[in-house]
Amino acid sequence: MSDQPVTSLSEPRLASGWGAATGSWLPAVILLLATVMVWEAVVRIFAISAFIIPAPSEIAQSLVAQWPTLLQATLVTAGEILFGFVVSVLVGIAIALVIVRFDWLGRALYPLVVLFQNVPKVALAPIFILWFGYGLAPKIGLILVIAFFPVTLSMLAGMQSVDRSLLSLMNSVGASRTQILFRIRVPHSLPNLMAGTKIAATLSVIGAIVGEFAGASDGLGYVIQFASTQLDTALVFAALLLVSVLGIAFYYAAEVLERIMVPWAPKFSGA
């Protein structure tokens, strides 16, 4: 008798949780499936050449046929993205801390950071190849210059939006600038910082592909370039599909990290 109320209460909760989880991704899945079906139908009905736009079924066939090559390329690109993303986050955090902690250095550094962000990153790719060769270093360099800025900007926004009355209280008890920075400003900036890391995660994918376009012997960017020279459009789309999967995976990995580190941060519900 005592177990019956527990069961009746827990079942609605489980059903509610499952319904909420399903409702969050089900519309996206339906839209994706509808897009694929329309794409397949249009290609078949209008007899569009696979050289121009391959049908989804042809992309899937190419994905299966070239899977060993694509898997190896995916692992290479994923390693570049992970390494570059970590370096970008660390550098972005360091720059933000320096700008806030040292006023004179911050006033000098911040305009240079903004100015550097306006430099076309694609134009830097051949320079990095010239400086660092065709190894991992130029890819990491490109990811860094592309992805560090949203981390720095987001953390700065968080650290500079602290309640002035809280800063006045810390000053009144004799706290130093370093103590205020690490006890007040940095914790307050964590939600902004995690939002910046999610942006940096997707930008890291772009940086890795741009680096592989400029010069590489492996990776998904190399596969895309090679398939383009062979006029194998289906393989190009298959590689692009895997690039998109990597981008989604890194984005949601950053979101999981956000939920662990700052569970109080507001979340986008899609409502």
Automatic annotation (TrEMBL):
Record keyword Transmembrane helix present: yes
GO biological process: transmembrane transport
Keywords: Cell membrane, Membrane, Transmembrane, Transmembrane helix, Transport
GO cellular component, one term: plasma membrane
Domain ABC transmembrane type-1 residues, every copy: 70-254
Topology of the protein relative to the lipid bilayer: Multi-pass membrane protein
Cellular compartment(s): Cell membrane
Regions crossing the membrane: 15-34, 41-61, 81-100, 112-134, 140-159, 193-214, 234-254
Family membership: Belongs to the binding-protein-dependent transport system permease family.
UniProt protein name: ABC transporter permease
Species name: Mesorhizobium erdmanii
